[in-house]
Specification:
The protein is of the alpha+beta class and 120 residues long. The chain has one domain (10-118). It is 35% helix and 30% strand. The protein is globular. The protein starts with 9 loop residues before the first helix and ends with a helix.
Length: 120
């Protein structure tokens, strides 16, 4: 899904819809306290999406005393910034608390992202 393209091609719209279908299905199948995902749109276009599974949210509750935020710069196949909220467990292993794909790295986008993280 390349939501970063400014074109309104049917392929991009399909890929965004497919992502939303996957997240919705995952939310239904998640057997823990709840799969979390939030979507930000601008002009009826997908702008940002953040998600966290039940097990990731449980890890955050257990090991979230220190959270590291990492933003890759378009190194994934989608060429979008990938935001990761991570920490370490009691064995020193890295645990992922939440992930997000976003269109840009502007202040409003980052503010939205951190507000969603607070809601976990």
């Amino acid at each position: 899904m390349n939501i970063a393209k400014k074109s309104d091609s049917r392929e991009n719209q399909f890929e965004a819809a497919e992502l939303m279908d996957v997240l919705s299905a995952t939310k239904k199948e998640d057997d823990g306290p709840g799969f979390f995902f939030r979507v930000r749109t601008e002009n009826n276009r997908l702008h940002s999406v953040m998600w966290s599974s039940s097990s990731q949210r449980e890890s955050l509750a257990r090991y979230g005393d220190v959270v590291v935020f990492d933003l890759t710069y378009k190194t994934n196949s989608l060429k979008l910034p990938l935001a990761a909220f991570v920490g370490t467990d009691n064995h020193g292993k890295t645990v992922v608390f939440a992930l997000a794909l976003q269109l840009d790295e502007t202040a409003p986008t980052m503010q939205w992202l951190f507000e969603q993280f607070k809601d976990l």
